[in-house]
C-alpha cells in the first residue's frame, strides 16, 4: 500500500514538474521558492552552516559569491558556464559530480540554478525576515457578502484554484464552534438559546461579544499559553519535586488574557518584568514565565550544568515563542539552513545568563507574594481591625483574634527572575560544539544580524531584548503570534510550522493574509487579542460549514486554502471540560492552587519523590476545568496525556493530534467521564417520561441540536437492546445503579445511551 | 508559480510519518491505521521491509526486542567482569592517576580499591566468567554474547537511563521503543506496539520519559502494563457494564459516526471508528495476554512465577507472552541496583544479593523459553544497566561508606545480549586489569543503539524525524554498527 502511494506521489510530482517547466521556462526564477529549496536539500549539508567544504557556503551570499579554496568561483552572476556550481552538478565523472552521494540534480533543478545565475544570481532575503508591508491592502473581490477583509484574501486565493467557499455552518454548529474557540467550553444554555432565538442580523456578533467578555475566555487562552510557557507544578528531572506556588503565575496569565493586556506589555512583563523601573508585584510575578525551566535535584548532579541547561532553555523558548525560529541547533554550530551563526546564539545567551537562580531545590530567588484570596482576607481584616480600633475595642478577644489572623498571613514564595548585581555578573562565552565546559570566545549580549536588519539596534539587557521583540519593525513577532492564534481556531496555522518561520519552515498559501493580520494586530488593535479574534471569528471564512466533498479533500486535504470551515478534534482540556459542562457537573470556580481530580491508584508510584495524589472530597474542586489540574512533569494527568497534552518539560508550539484506542478508553471508562454519563442520564430521565424525548434532550445537551430520524432509531434500538441485555443480567443493573432509589434496566440502558452521546465523533470534535 | 509552491510545500512535508499516516487515510476511505491496525504487517516479514523509504532499508534479523534494564546500574565487577588484581589491591588507596581530572557522582578525596566481593568461575565452552551470584545464568553462558567495554558519558541515573533509552541525557526525546514502532509499524492489531513492565523498588529514576514519544506523535509512546489494577489504564469496563452491553454501545457509536462521515466527509471519523473497534478488541486481548494463570506448571517452575505477584519473574514471562503476540518493543525495568554501600539496601552483600536472586532464574528461563520456542531467531534480548560501577569502594566526605559498595562509573560496564543474528558464546571488548577503562573494542551507547536498530532492519542514520528545524535520530549524530558481533 505504501509503495503504491510513494510511486503515485513520485509520478504526480514528476508530471507537475514537467508541466511547470514547460509553461514557466525563461520566466524570472524566484530565489525563495525555487532556488533556496534546491540548495537546502541538495547542497547545504556540506556547504552550509555546519560545514563549508571547499570554502563554500550557500548560507550567506557573500560566502557563496566569494573565491573558493580552489581559486574558482561557485557562482559567477550572469554566467552559468563559468560557474563551478553548474559545472560540478553537470559533471559526468562520478568522482567530481555534486552532490557526491545519491542521485544527482534533475535536469529541471539544474535548469533552475542555471537560469537563476544567468539572471544575475540575486539573493532574495527570506520572506519572514522582511517586515510585513504596512501598506498592504486586502484585494478587491466581487460578491463578498457578510464578510470582511480576511474573506477578500481567502476568496482571491480560492479564485486561483477555481474554488468557491463553503456555505455557512448551521447556527447550532457555529454557536458551539465559536464558544469552544473563545472560551474553551460549549455555550451555556442561556447564551445558546438567546442566540438561536435572535433573528436579527447581528445575532452572531452579539454572541461573539458576550463570549469575549466571559471570564472563561482567560482560562481558555491561558491553556494555550501555558504550553508555550512550559508551565508545570513540579521541577522536572528525577525527583520532580513539587512547585507548590507556581499556580500564581498561571493565574497571572488568566487575568492578563481576561483584561486583554496588550501583547507587547504581556511579553515585556513576562520576559523582563523584574527590570522594569519600579516593577509592581504583578510584573515580578509575570517573570515566573522563565522560571518554569526544570531543576535537577538528583544526588551528585552539578548545579552549574543544570543552571546552564535552564538558561539554554530560556534562549530556545524565547526564540521559538516570539520569533518562530528554531535556534537550538545553533547551540552546537552555525544554523545549517538559516543565516544564524554559532556565536550569535551565545549573544542571546548573554541576555539570560545573569539571573540569580542556580538550580537550587528552593527555586531561589523567590518573590514573597500574596495570592488573590489572601489579599482579600487581608483587606477585610484590615478594615475589621481599624473599625475595632476606632471603637476603642483593642482589648477585646475579637480584636486580638483579628490581629493574630492578620499576622498569620504568610505570603507565598514564587520563583521569579532576578538579575545579579552588576559587580557579580557572569561572563558569557561561546560553548565550543555546544559543550558547556569548553569555553570559546567571550560574547556580549546581541541579537542575530539576520533578524535585526530592520531594527538595527542592539538591545543591552533583557528588558531591551523584550522591547526589541515587540519593536514594530521586528519582522517575526506579530506574524508568529497571529499565526498561533489562527491555528488555535482553524487547527492549522497559515504557516503550518508554527515553530519554524525559517527557510525550512512550511510555505504558506496565505502569506498575504498572514501579513495583513500581523499589521492589524500591531497597528489596528495595538496588540490587543480580543479585537483580533473578534475579526477572525466574524469572517465568513471562519463561519463556513466544515463538510468536505471528496474532490475538495483530494485537492486540499489539510484545508490550507480555507474553502471550508475548521473541523478538528477538541484539545485534552476541552474534552474534559465539555463532559463536565454538558452533564451539569462543571464547577466554575476559578484560580488558586492546582487540584487533583480522581486518578487511578498507583499512577504516581512511578516517581521517586513520594508526594501523594490526593483527590479533594468536595465536588467543587473535583470537577474544575482541566486547566487547574495538577501538572506533574514526570507523570502528567493520564487522560490529558492520552489526548496529546504535553508533559511541559519544554516549550511545545504544536500538539500533534493523534487518534488512538487509548482515547476511547478514557471517554468510555475513565470514572470522570463515566460519572458525567451517569449524571447526564439522570437529567435525560428527569426531562421526560418518553424515550424519544429523553433522547432528544440528550442530543440537545451534548450537540446542541435535535437527532435525525435515523439517529433516533439507532438510539431507540440501543435502548431496547440494552434493556433486554440487562434484564438477562440483573446483577449488572445492581452494580451499575447502586445508589439509585429504584434500580431498573431502563436506568442502566439510559446510562449507556449517555455514554454513546459523550463518545460521538461530533462531540469529541469541533465541527 | 503556485503549483511550484504547492510542490515544494509537499516536498517539505514529505517523509514525516505523521503526514504519511494522515495522507494514508485519504485515498483509502478506510481508517489510517498503518500503525495500530497492523496493516503494515508485511513489513515484519523477514523478506522485505522496505516500504517506508529510508527507514526499514536493511534486511532485518529481528522482529522485536525485549530489553531488560537493571535500573540503578548493577556492578559488573560482582557479576561478569572478573578482576583478580582487585583482590590484591583491596583496601589500598586508589592511585592518583585514576582520579586526576575525573568527576564522580559521590566519591571525593582518595578512595580505597575494593576487591571482587564474590567468587567467580568459568562456565560453558566459551569459558565465560560468572560470579556465584548467578547460578542459573551460568548454565546458559554459551547462548549469550557478553559486551564488556560499554561506555557512557553520563554518571547519574536519570540522565544515563535517558541516554540509554532516548539517546540523549535530557528529557524530551523519543524513546527507543517509540523510534522502533515509528520506523517499523506494529505487528499486531490488538495490542500496543511498545509495552513497558516495571518491577522492583518503585520505578526507574528517569520516570515515564524513558518510554515517552518525545516529539514523535503520542501514538508511539510506550504503554505501561501495570502489575496491579487495570493492566492498561481504563481498559476495564466500569462496574455494571458487561461486555455484551459494551458491544452494542460501540456499535451505536460507530453507526452514528458513520452517518456523520457520510455528511461531513472527514476521514478522521473513520479512524476514530476503527479505534473504537480496536479498543473493544484490546479489552479482550490485554487481559488475555496478561493473565499468567493459563501457563502450564512447568513454565511457572521454569520462571519461578506466581500469578498475581508483582515480580521480575512475572514480567519476564509476560514479556515472552507479549513477544508471541507481536509486540515490537518490550521494555522491562527492575530497580534497586544502586549499590553505593551507604545502607544495607545499597550493600553489595545486602540489596545487591537480593536483586541477583530476583533476576537469576527468571532471565535464564526467558532465554531458555525463547530458545525452545524458536523465538530467539527473531527476538533480540538485551540485559544491562545504565552504567557500571567503580573499582573503588565508595567514600563520601572523605570516609568509606559503612557497607561494601561502589560509585557510578561510565567508563566501562558489561551488558549481555542474545538472539536474532548476534554471535553467541563469546565476549566482545575487554577492560584493563582493574576494570576501570575499556582497553579493546569499546562500545558507546550510541553504537549499541545503532547495532540493535541494524538488527531490526533500520539504518540508524536514516531513521529520522524532523523537529525544531532539524532531523533528529535516536543516535543523535553518532553511532557505529558493531559488525564484529553480528553472526
In short:
The complex is a heterodimer of chains A (767) and B (487). Chain A is mostly helical and 767 residues long.
Major sheet strand order of chain A = 1-2
Average of pLDDT of chain A: 90
The amount of helix of chain B comes to 25-40%
Q: Write down the CATH class of the largest domain in chain B.
A: Alpha Beta
Shape descriptor of chain B reads: globular
Number of helical stretches of at least 4 residues of chain B = 12
Report, as a whole number of angstroms, the end-to-end distance of chain A: 30 Å
Strand composition percent of chain A: under 5%
Number of strands of chain B: 19
Overview of the molecule:
The complex is a heterodimer of chains A (767) and B (487). With 767 residues, chain A is an all-alpha fold. In chain A, a hairpin with a 7-residue loop joins strand 3 (428-431) and strand 4 (439-443). Chain A is 49% helix and 3% strand. Chain A has 34 helices and six strands. Chain A is globular. Chain A has helices at 2-24, 31-43, 61-64, 84-90, 107-118, 149-160, 171-183, 189-197, 203-212, 216-228, 247-258, 263-272, 281-286, 303-323, 342-352, 372-390, 397-408, 449-452, 462-469, 477-490, 511-524, 529-538, 540-543, 550-555, 572-583, 619-622, 638-642, 661-669, 671-687, 691-703, 709-728, 730-737, 745-759, 761-764, and strands at 366-369, 412-415, 428-431, 439-443, 568-569, 765-766. Chain B is of the alpha/beta class and 487 residues long. Chain B is 31% helix and 17% strand. Chain B has twelve helices and 19 strands. Chain B has helices at residues 2-13, 17-28, 84-89, 96-99, 157-166, 176-184, 243-264, 267-290, 297-303, 312-324, 351-372, 445-455, and strands at 64-71, 120-123, 128-131, 145-151, 194-200, 223-224, 329-335, 379-384, 388-393, 395-396, 399-400, 406-409, 413-418, 426-428, 430-431, 438-440, 443-444, 465-467, 470-472. In chain B, strands 1, 4, 5, 6, 7, 8, 13, 14 and 17 form a nine-stranded mixed beta sheet that branches. In chain B, a hairpin with a 4-residue loop joins strand 2 (120-123) and strand 3 (128-131).
Amino acid at each position: 500500500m505504501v509503495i503504491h502511494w510513494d510511486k503515485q506521489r513520485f509520478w504526480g510530482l514528476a508530471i507537475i514538474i514537467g508541466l511547470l517547466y514547460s509553461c514557466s521556462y525563461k520566466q524570472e526564477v524566484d530565489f525563495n521558492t525555487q532556488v533556496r529549496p534546491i540548495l537546502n536539500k541538495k547542497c547545504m549539508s556540506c556547504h552550509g552552516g555546519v560545514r563549508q567544504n571547499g570554502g563554500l557556503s550557500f548560507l550567506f551570499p557573500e560566502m557563496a559569491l566569494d573565491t573558493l579554496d580552489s581559486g574558482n568561483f561557485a557562482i559567477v552572476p550572469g554566467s552559468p558556464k563559468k560557474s563551478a556550481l553548474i559545472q560540478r552538478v553537470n559533471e559526468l565523472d562520478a568522482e567530481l559530480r555534486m552532490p557526491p552521494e545519491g542521485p544527482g540534480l534533475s535536469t529541471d533543478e539544474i535548469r533552475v540554478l542555471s537560469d537563476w545565475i544567468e539572471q544575475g544570481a540575486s539573493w532574495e532575503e527570506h520572506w519572514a525576515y522582511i517586515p510585513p508591508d504596512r501598506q498592504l491592502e486586502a484585494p478587491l473581490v466581487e460578491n463578498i457578502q457578510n464578510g470582511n477583509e480576511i474573506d477578500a484574501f481567502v476568496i482571491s486565493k480560492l479564485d486561483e484554484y477555481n474554488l468557491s467557499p463553503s456555505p455557512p455552518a448551521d447556527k447550532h454548529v457555529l454557536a458551539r464552534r465559536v464558544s469552544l474557540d473563545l472560551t474553551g467550553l460549549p455555550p451555556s444554555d442561556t447564551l445558546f438559546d438567546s442566540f438561536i432565538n435572535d433573528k436579527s442580523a447581528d445575532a452572531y456578533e452579539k454572541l461573539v461579544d458576550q463570549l469575549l467578555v466571559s471570564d472563561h475566555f482567560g482560562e481558555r487562552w491561558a491553556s494555550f499559553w501555558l504550553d508555550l510557557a512550559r508551565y508545570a507544578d513540579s521541577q522536572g528531572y528525577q525527583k520532580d519535586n513539587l512547585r507548590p506556588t507556581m499556580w500564581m503565575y498561571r493565574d497571572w496569565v488568566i487575568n492578563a488574557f481576561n483584561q486583554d493586556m496588550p501583547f507587547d506589555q504581556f511579553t515585556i512583563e513576562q520576559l523582563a518584568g523584574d527590570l522594569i523601573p519600579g516593577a509592581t508585584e504583578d510584573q515580578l510575578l509575570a517573570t515566573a514565565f522563565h522560571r518554569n525551566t526544570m531543576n535537577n535535584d538528583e544526588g551528585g548532579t552539578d548545579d552549574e550544568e543544570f543552571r546552564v541547561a535552564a538558561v539554554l532553555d530560556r534562549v530556545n523558548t524565547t526564540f521559538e515563542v516570539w520569533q518562530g525560529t528554531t535556534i537550538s541547533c545553533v547551540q552546537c554550530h552555525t544554523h545549517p539552513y538559516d543565516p544564524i551563526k554559532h556565536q550569535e546564539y551565545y549573544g542571546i545567551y548573554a541576555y539570560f545568563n545573569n539571573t540569580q537562580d542556580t538550580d537550587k531545590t528552593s527555586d531561589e530567588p523567590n518573590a514573597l507574594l500574596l495570592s488573590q484570596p489572601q489579599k482579600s482576607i487581608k483587606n477585610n481584616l484590615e478594615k475589621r481591625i481599624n473599625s475595632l480600633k476606632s471603637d476603642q475595642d483593642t482589648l477585646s478577644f475579637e480584636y486580638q483574634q483579628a490581629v493574630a489572623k492578620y499576622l498569620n498571613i504568610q505570603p507565598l514564595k514564587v520563583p521569579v527572575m532576578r538579575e545579579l548585581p552588576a559587580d557579580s555578573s557572569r561572563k558569557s562565552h561561546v560553548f565550543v560544539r555546544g559543550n558547556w565546559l569548553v569555553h570559546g570566545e567571550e560574547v556580549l549580549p546581541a541579537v542575530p544580524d539576520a533578524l535585526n536588519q530592520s531594527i538595527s539596534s542592539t538591545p543591552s539587557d533583557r528588558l531591551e531584548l523584550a522591547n526589541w521583540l515587540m519593536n514594530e519593525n521586528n519582522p517575526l513577532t506579530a506574524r508568529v503570534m497571529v499565526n498561533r492564534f489562527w491555528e488555535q481556531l482553524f487547527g492549522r496555522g497559515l504557516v503550518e510550522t508554527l515553530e519554524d518561520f525559517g527557510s525550512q519552515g512550511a510555505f504558506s498559501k496565505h502569506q498575504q493574509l498572514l501579513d495583513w493580520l500581523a499589521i492589524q494586530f500591531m497597528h489596528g488593535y495595538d496588540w490587543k487579542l480580543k479585537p483580533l479574534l473578534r475579526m477572525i471569528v466574524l469572517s465568513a471564512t471562519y463561519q463556513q460549514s466544515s463538510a468536505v466533498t471528496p474532490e475538495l479533500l483530494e485537492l486540499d486535504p489539510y484545508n490550507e486554502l480555507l474553502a471550508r470551515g475548521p473541523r478538528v478534534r477538541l484539545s485534552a482540556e476541552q474534552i474534559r471540560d465539555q463532559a463536565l459542562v454538558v452533564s451539569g457537573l462543571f464547577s466554575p470556580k476559578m484560580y488558586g492552587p492546582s487540584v487533583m481530580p480522581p486518578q487511578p491508584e498507583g499512577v504516581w508510584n512511578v516517581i521517586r519523590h513520594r508526594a501523594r495524589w490526593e483527590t479533594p472530597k468536595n465536588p467543587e474542586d473535583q470537577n474544575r476545568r482541566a486547566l487547574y489540574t495538577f501538572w506533574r512533569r514526570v507523570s502528567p494527568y493520564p487522560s490529558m496525556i492520552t489526548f496529546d497534552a504535553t508533559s511541559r518539560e519544554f516549550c511545545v508550539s504544536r500538539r500533534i493530534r493523534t487518534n488512538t484506542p487509548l482515547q476511547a478508553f478514557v471517554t468510555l471508562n475513565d470514572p470522570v467521564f463515566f460519572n458525567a454519563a451517569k449524571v447526564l442520564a439522570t437529567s435525560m430521565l428527569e426531562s421526560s417520561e418518553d424515550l424519544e424525548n429523553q433522547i432528544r434532550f440528550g442530543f440537545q445537551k451534548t450537540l446542541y441540536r435535535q437527532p435525525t430520524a435515523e439517529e433516533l432509531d439507532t438510539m431507540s434500538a440501543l435502548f431496547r437492546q440494552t434493556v433486554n441485555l440487562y434484564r438477562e443480567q440483573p446483577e449488572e443493573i445492581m452494580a451499575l445503579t447502586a445508589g439509585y432509589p429504584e434500580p431498573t434496566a431502563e436506568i442502566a440502558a439510559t446510562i449507556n445511551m449517555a455514554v454513546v452521546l459523550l463518545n460521538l465523533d461530533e462531540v469529541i470534535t469541533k465541527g | 508559480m503556485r503549483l511550484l509552491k504547492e510542490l515544494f510545500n509537499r516536498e517539505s512535508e514529505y517523509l514525516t510519518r505523521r503526514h504519511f499516516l494522515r495522507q494514508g487515510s485519504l485515498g483509502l476511505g478506510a481508517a489510517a491505521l498503518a500503525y495500530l491496525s497492523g496493516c503494515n504487517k508485511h513489513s515484519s516479514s523477514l523478506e522485505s521491509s522496505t516500504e517506508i523509504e529510508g527507514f526499514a532499508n536493511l534486511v532485518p534479523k529481528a522482529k522485536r526486542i525485549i530489553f531488560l534494564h537493571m535500573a540503578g546500574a548493577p556492578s559488573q565487577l560482582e557479576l561478569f567482569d572478573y578482576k583478580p588484581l582487585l583482590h590484591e589491591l583491596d583496601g589500598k588507596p586508589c592511585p592518583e592517576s585514576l582520579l586526576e581530572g575525573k568527576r564522580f557522582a559521590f566519591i571525593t578525596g582518595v578512595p580505597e580499591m575494593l576487591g571482587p566481593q564474590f567468587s567467580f568461575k568459568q562456565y560453558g565452552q566459551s569459558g565465560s566468567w560468572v560470579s556465584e551470584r548467578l547460578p542459573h545464568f551460568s548454565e546458559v553462558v554459551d547462548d549469550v554474547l557478553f559486551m564488556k567495554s560499554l561506555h557512557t558519558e553520563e554518571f547519574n541515573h536519570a540522565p544515563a537511563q535517558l541516554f540509554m533509552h532516548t539517546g540523549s541525557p535530557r528529557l524530551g526525546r523519543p524513546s527507543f521503543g517509540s523510534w522502533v514502532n515509528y520506523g517499523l509499524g506494529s505487528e499486531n492489531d490488538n495490542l500496543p506496539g511498545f509495552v513497558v513492565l516495571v518491577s522492583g523498588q518503585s520505578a526507574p529514576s528517569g520516570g515515564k520519559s524513558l518510554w515517552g514519544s518525545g516529539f514523535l506523535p503520542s501514538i508511539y509512546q510506550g504503554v505501561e502494563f501495570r502489575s496491579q489494577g487495570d493492566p492498561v489504564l481504563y481498559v476495564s469496563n466500569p462496574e455494571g457494564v458487561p461486555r455484551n452491553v459494551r458491544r452494542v454501545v460501540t456499535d451505536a457509536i460507530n453507526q452514528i459516526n458513520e452517518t456523520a462521515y457520510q455528511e461531513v466527509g472527514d476521514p478522521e471519523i473513520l479512524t476514530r471508528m476503527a479505534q473504537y473497534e480496536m479498543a473493544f478488541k484490546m479489552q479482550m486481548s490485554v487481559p488475555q495476554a496478561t493473565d499468567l494463570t493459563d501457563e502450564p506448571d512447568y513454565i511457572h517452575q521454569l520462571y519461578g512465577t506466581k500469578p498475581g505477584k508483582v515480580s521480575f519473574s512475572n514480567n519476564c514471562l509476560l514479556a515472552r507472552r507479549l513477544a508471541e503476540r507481536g509486540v515490537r518493543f518490550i521494555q522491562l525495568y527492575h530497580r534497586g541496583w544502586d549499590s553505593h554501600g551507604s545502607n544495607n539496601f545499597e550493600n553489595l552483600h545486602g540489596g545487591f544479593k537480593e536483586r541477583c536472586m530476583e533476576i537469576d532464574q527468571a532471565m535464564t528461563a526467558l532465554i531458555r523459553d525463547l530458545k525452545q520456542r524458536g523465538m530467539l531467531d527473531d527476538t533480540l534480548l538485551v540485559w544491562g544497566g545504565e552504567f557500571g560501577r567503580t573499582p573503588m569502594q565508595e567514600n563520601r566526605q572523605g570516609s568509606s561508606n559503612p557497607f561494601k559498595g561502589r560509585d557510578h562509573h561510565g567508563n566501562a560496564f558489561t551488558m549481555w545480549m542474545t538472539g536474532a543474528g548476534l554471535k553467541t558464546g563469546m565476549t566482545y571488548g575487554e577492560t584493563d586489569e582493574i576494570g576501570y577503562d575499556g582497553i579493546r573494542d569499546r562500545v558507546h551507547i550510541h553504537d549499541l543503539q545503532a547495532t540493535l536498530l541494524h538488527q531490526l532492519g533500520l539504518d540508524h542514520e536514516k531513521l529520522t524525524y524532523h523537529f525544531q528545524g532539524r532531523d533528529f535520530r535516536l543516535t543523535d549524530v553518532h553511532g557505529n554498527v558493531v559488525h564484529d558481533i553480528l553472526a
